[in-house]
Each structure stands twice: as C-alpha cells, then as structure tokens.
C-alpha cells in the first residue's frame, strides 16, 4: 500500500481528526455524500472506498493535504512542551483516571446520551491538548443511545441501530500474551467477565468495558447494550461494571492512576474496589478509607434530590452478596457508606453519598450549582454550616476547537493562530476582535446561517420520507414553498437539548397569539429551530415534543417553526453555529450548568437564557439577554407565567429591535457589538481548557485540596 494511504488510515484511528478542520476536510473531500451518509465516520467511509481509488486519487494535490495533516498529527502526539509539562509536571507521570457512564466525543461514536457525555468528551480532549496524562473509563454500548424519529402524530419513537467494532476506531485490548484481556466482576452470585476496547482521543486513551462475550450468561451479556437502558437492576449492574470493573482493568493494564475522577455518581463503586485492595493489604478500615480518599475526586451534576442514583438495601444485598463475602465486609458496613441517615441502614443506598464520603474533594459544575449542592448535602456534615460543606465548584466549559471546527475555525484562523490561542485570555480575544470588521462578522453570521438552512432542507427531506406520512407530508413540506421558506435574512432562534420537563421547551408557546404576532411580523419576522430527545421512559417529555410538532403544523407557524429529529452531536454542531440566538428556559436552579449556550459564542451566536447554571456568572448585561432576574416561585404555573411574560417582553422590546436595526450598509451595529462582547467575555472563560486547568490545579495535584 502507498505510504499516503497508510497515513490516511492511521488518521482515522485517532479521534484527534474530529477537532481539526483540515483533517475533516480530507475525509469529506473523498466523497461528500458518503461522508454525510455515514455520520461523518471516516472508518466507515474508507470501508466504502477501494484502495485502487485511494491510490489513484493520492496522485494529485490531495496527497499534499494528507501529508500536511499527518505531519501535524504526528507533531501533536509527540509534543512534550505542553501546559502540563510546564505547570503540573506530576500530572505528566501517573495518569488521571476519569470515569464516566458516557462520553460524547463525536457523533460517529454513539456512547453518549446528552450533556454529561459531551462534557466528558470535551474534558478528555482538553486534557489531551494540555498534555495531562489521562485515561477515560466507560462501557461499550453496542446499541448506544436510541435514534429518535417521530410518528404521524409527532410522538417520539425509538430505535436502536447496532454499532459494530469494525466500524469504529476502536481496538481490542490484549494482554502481554497477545490474548484478549479479560477482567471479572462479582454480580449477585455470578462471576461476570468483560473484555475491553481502547479508543484514542489525541494523546488520551478511552477504555470501554464490554460484557458481550459468549462466556457470559445472556442477561449479563446485555449489561452494555444501551446507555442508561433498562431498569434499576440493569443500572446497578452497569455501575458495578463501570466502577469495579474499571479499577480492575486499570490494574490489569499496570496503570497506576494518581487520581480517580468520578464524573457523576454512576462510577462511585470504584471506591469500594480501591477500599477492598487496601483492606487486603492489612490496613484498618480507617486507614483504608483515608488511602482511598486521598486518591479520589468527585463531580456532582444533579441539583435535584430525585435525580441521584439510589438502590434499595435488598438490591444491594442481592447484587453485592458474593462481593461482600470476598472482601470481608458486612451489608451494614456497606450500607453505611451510602446512607444519608447513619442511624437507618435499612433505607436507600445513594451513590452520591458514597462518592462524597470517599473523595478528597468534590465539586458542582457552576457557582450556583455549588451553592445548591452544599445546601442539599449539608445533612451529611453535622455541625457544619452550609457554606462550610466541602463541595466547591468548577464551572463547565466546552472544547473550543471541536465546537468551532470547520468554517468558523477557518474564519478565526485568518486573524490568529488557533481558536485556543484566541480564547486563552480576554486580552487575546479582544486583540483578534480588533482586527475584524463588523462587515466580516456579519458575513460570518450569514454564511453559518445559510449552512444551517441548507442542512435543514436536506435533513427534513430525509426526516419526512421516513415519517411515511403521506397526508401530512405536503402540509409539513411547506418550508420548500416560496412564501414560507426559511431565510438567513430572518432572526433565527435555536432551542435544542434533552426534553427533560424542567427545561420547559414549550415555554415560548404559552401565548400563541403573541407568538404569532412576533413570528409573522412582516417587517421583523422570526423563525425557530427545535431539536431534542426525551428519555424513552419520559412520557411527559415526549408530550412536549408532540405539542411542538402540533404547533409547528399550524398554518401560522408552518415553515417558521421547525423540529429536527434525532438531536445528536452532529445536529448540535449545525445548530449552535447557525442560529442567531440560543434559547434556554430551565426552571431555576435545576440546570446544574448547561453547556450548549457556550458552544454558540465563537460562531457569533448570542444567549437568551434564564439566569441558571453557567449564565448568572457569565451574563454582564451586554453579552446576551436574561429571562427574568432569578425570581423563584414555589408554584410552577406561576413561575412559567412569569418567565414566559418576561421572555416575550425581552424578545419584543430588545432582541428583535436590535437585530433589525441597521446602519446605511445594512449592518446591525448594536447587535454586532453584543457579539463582540460575548466573544470577549464568554469564550475565554467557558471553555474546557480553562475548566481542565482548574481541575488540575485545584483537584488533581496532590496537596492542593480545595
Ligand atoms: C451540548 C450538548 C448537550 C448539553 O446541552 P445543555 O442542555 O446545554 O446542557 C446535550 N446534547 C448534545 C448532543 C450536546 O451537544
């Protein structure tokens, strides 16, 4: 095989390409159609293209492009002068082991459900960029999370297409003998075996445990079927595999983590496995706990008590029976680690409590969420005031080069070396902005919005085809007609996220007459793009989707309100880059952080959000808009009425007039001033490079307890 073909194939085996604009382009250039059809999966793309074709095509300019990208990739992998080498050398030696039930790295690797996974993926990428020695641990879900489609009535349906290892950039983990590396965990009375896969993400490695092997009983082979699939029993089995299996895998690989980072409570059983290792060495329980604590850090993501994983004593007894015998611990001793009330060991076992008890540091994911978490868990720390509860905060960010990859990244790189450079400080961002004219920013906005609209037309054609909905087809097909066409001239709002009810997707529909007047204002119209999945068990969330579909089919909204099926990382990327305004309407303070609004900023998108999650920290009055001022009502109906009224008022009196207010060159000068302000104040702060540096200095480095 030609050297260039080997280089190209090598690039597909490390997801580094997913945040490099030119690397993506060399795949897309091979066949734009196959690239899109195969979910931007280069492994799959190359399976469709013969070596003869590749060899032939490598004889022109294309060859040089591969060479350049491959050279940059090699330099990246071998770089030793990194942030970590300069600032945290101990984190270059032993790795940080980051455990998460999901990782959202790229749409072609479907092992994530939503924001928690995307955060984990972005964390992994930044850790790699910063040169921190870093391994991720998760499960290999052969069905991933579901694919969403809507039936005639707008009701969400789910299907679960399989993903095959040979279509993914993953490799079987083998032992020194060259055979598959196998670990085992005790579940109930069984010994459950798991193999492992590895996935390269820049310099970091992600390990995926997989029980789908013939040696296991069939119900244990299915543990890794779906992300958050199944019942409580499935959930506890997944969490045992992730936490306990993960520690065992690292041991078998000879990896000795300096720090274990639990991303949410799902992986907290890892502390038990570490504890059992210490007890086996002959340490007392106190000493063993201290040793575990000194190596573990925990990030909580759930501001609602009901959102935390809990298991009954019966279930703990049944599932851990053999495990407890092996490590010599009683059920009561185990229950003590997870009980909110130490005087009642017959209640529920709470994963967050276990994680808090056996970590040296814990944090929420925004300033507000830190406060909420301290209040929520104060009862675990008798005698401490709320403000002394040892839970800090590190506000979530997004991986800037992933989320700007493509047109926006190329745009900024005409003025700066990289978006990482541009977002390294406010000064750096302002320096770049000073070189860019208003007309250029406006041109960026138009290009991105045009890309989104073109994408929507292609996507909708496919979506409607699959709805098999002949009578509705023509009705719903109107975006193609002249009168109702989506247009980049029109102010465009985006709303996309999980359809958890607290996010209140239908809030903007509370007053349909008012919305009608806003949307159909002939001089200053508005269009809105929605997307999002409801959890398969969440009928209330599905009802919200159905309502929005129904509204979107009404004549006055037809073609102005669009719902895109099957929200995922690919759709998210299109939406956050194309829309003018990113709408966020959670019930305060239920959004721990939220990150999607942070993704829109480098594209020149502006946030319009309830003051929840990251937004109260970032909002300065001139870099976006707030819905309400943080007022909180006990009554949800009252809260909705208040927030909706505020939403309409700000939209009518501020957002729409600012957008349509143009100078003699038809440029919305005040709007662009806000874009500049957003980029300067938000992009340098709410990115994962800053976030991971915070984790490194506050939590990962020894003797730097927060
Ligand atoms: C960023 C992202 C999320 C998280 O969105 P928030 O609601 O802002 O937390 C969820 N899903 C996908 C696909 C994303 O890209």
Give an account of the 3D structure:
This protein has 706 residues and is α/β, with parallel strands linked by helices. It folds into three domains: 77 residues, no CATH class; 323 residues, Rossmann fold (3-Layer(aba) Sandwich); 221 residues, 3-Layer(aba) Sandwich (Rossmann fold). The strands form four sheets. Strands 1, 2, 5, 6, 7, 8, 9, 10, 13 and 14 form a ten-stranded mixed β-sheet that branches. Helix 12 packs across helix 13. The longest helix has 29 residues. About 1% of the residues have low confidence. Bound molecules: pyridoxal-5'-phosphate.
Q: What is the total domain count?
A: 3
Number of helices: 31
Beta-strand percentage range:
5-15%
Radius of gyration: 25 Å
CATH superfamily membership of the largest domain, which one? Answer: Glycogen Phosphorylase B
The class by helix and strand makeup works out as: alpha/beta
Ligands (ions, cofactors included): pyridoxal-5'-phosphate
How would you sum up the major sheet?
10 strands, mixed
Determine the CATH topology of the largest domain.
Answer: Rossmann fold
Cα separation of the termini: 54 Å
Helix content: 40-55%
**CATH hierarchy, class of the largest domain:** Alpha Beta
């Amino acid at each position: 095989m030609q050297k260039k073909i080997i280089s190209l194939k090598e690039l597909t085996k490390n997801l580094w390409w997913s945040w490099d604009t030119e690397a993506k382009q060399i795949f897309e250039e091979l066949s734009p159609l196959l690239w899109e059809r195969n979910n931007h999966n280069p492994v799959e793309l190359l399976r469709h293209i013969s070596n003869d074709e590749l060899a032939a095509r490598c004889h022109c300019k294309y060859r040089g492009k591969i060479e350049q990208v491959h050279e940059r990739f090699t330099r990246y992998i071998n770089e030793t002068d990194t942030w970590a080498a300069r600032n945290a050398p101990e984190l270059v030696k032993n790795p940080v082991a980051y455990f998460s039930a999901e990782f959202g790295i790229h749409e072609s690797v479907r092992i994530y459900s939503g924001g928690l996974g995307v955060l984990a993926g972005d964390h992994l990428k930044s850790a790699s960029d910063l040169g921190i020695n870093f391994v991720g641990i998760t499960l290999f879900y052969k069905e991933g999370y579901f694919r969403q489609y809507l039936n005639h009535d707008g009701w969400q349906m789910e299907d679960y297409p399989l993903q095959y290892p040979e279509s993914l950039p993953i490799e079987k983990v083998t032992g020194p003998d060259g055979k598959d590396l196998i670990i085992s965990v005790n579940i109930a009375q069984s010994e459950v075996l798991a193999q492992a896969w590895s996935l390269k993400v820049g310099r970091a490695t992600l390990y995926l445990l997989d029980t789908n092997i013939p040696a296991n009983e069939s119900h244990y082979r299915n543990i890794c079927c779906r992300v958050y699939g199944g019942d409580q029993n499935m959930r506890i089995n997944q969490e045992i595999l992730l936490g306990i299996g993960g520690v065992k895998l690292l041991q078998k690989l000879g990896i000795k983590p300096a720090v274990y980072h639990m991303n949410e409570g799902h992986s907290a059983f890892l502390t038990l496995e570490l504890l059992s290792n210490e007890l086996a060495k002959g340490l007392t329980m106190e000493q063993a706990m201290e040793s575990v604590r000194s190596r573990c850090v925990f990030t909580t993501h759930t501001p609602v008590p009901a959102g935390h994983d809990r298991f009954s004593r019966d279930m703990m007894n049944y599932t851990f029976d053999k495990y407890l015998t092996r490590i010599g611990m009683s059920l009561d001793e185990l229950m003590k680690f997870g009980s909110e009330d130490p005087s009642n060991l017959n209640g529920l076992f709470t994963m967050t409590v276990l994680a808090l008890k056996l970590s040296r540091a814990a944090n929420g994911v925004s300033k507000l969420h830190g406060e909420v978490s301290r209040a929520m868990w104060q009862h675990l720390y008798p005698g401490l005031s709320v403000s002394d509860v040892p839970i800090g905060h590190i506000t979530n960010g997004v991986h800037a080069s992933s989320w700007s990859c493509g047109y926006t990244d190329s745009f900024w790189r005409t003025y700066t070396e990289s978006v990482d450079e541009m977002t390294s400080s406010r000064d750096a961002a302002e320096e770049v902005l000073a070189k860019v004219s208003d007309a250029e920013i406006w041109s960026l906005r138009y290009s991105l919005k045009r890309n989104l609209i073109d994408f929507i037309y292609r996507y909708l054609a496919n979506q409607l085809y699959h709805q098999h909905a002949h009578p509705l087809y023509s009705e719903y097909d109107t975006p193609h007609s002249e009168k109702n066409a989506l247009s980049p001239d029109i102010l465009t709002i985006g709303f996309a996220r999980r359809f958890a009810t607290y996010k209140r997707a239908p809030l903007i529909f509370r007053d349909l007459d008012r919305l009608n007047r806003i949307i159909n204002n002939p001089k200053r119209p508005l269009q809105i793009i929605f997307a999002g999945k409801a959890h398969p068990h969440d009928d209330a969330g599905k009802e919200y989707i159905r309502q929005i579909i129904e509204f979107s089919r009404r004549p006055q909204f037809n073609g102005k309100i669009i719902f895109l099926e099957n929200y995922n990382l690919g759709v998210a990327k299109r939406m956050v880059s194309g829309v003018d305004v990113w709408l966020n309407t959670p019930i305060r303070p239920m959004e721990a952080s939220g990150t999607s609004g942070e993704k829109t900023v480098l594209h020149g998108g502006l946030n319009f959000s309830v003051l929840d999650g990251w937004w109260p920290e970032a909002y300065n009055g001139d870099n976006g808009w707030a819905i309400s001022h943080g007022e909180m009502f006990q009554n949800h109906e009252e809260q909705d009425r208040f927030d909706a009224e505020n939403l309409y008022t700000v939209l009518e009196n501020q957002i729409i007039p600012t957008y349509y207010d143009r100078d003699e060159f038809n440029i919305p000068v005040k709007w662009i001033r806000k874009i500049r302000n957003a980029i300067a104040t938000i992009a340098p702060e709410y990115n994962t490079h800053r976030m991971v540096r915070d984790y490194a200095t506050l939590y990962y480095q020894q003797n730097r307890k927060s």
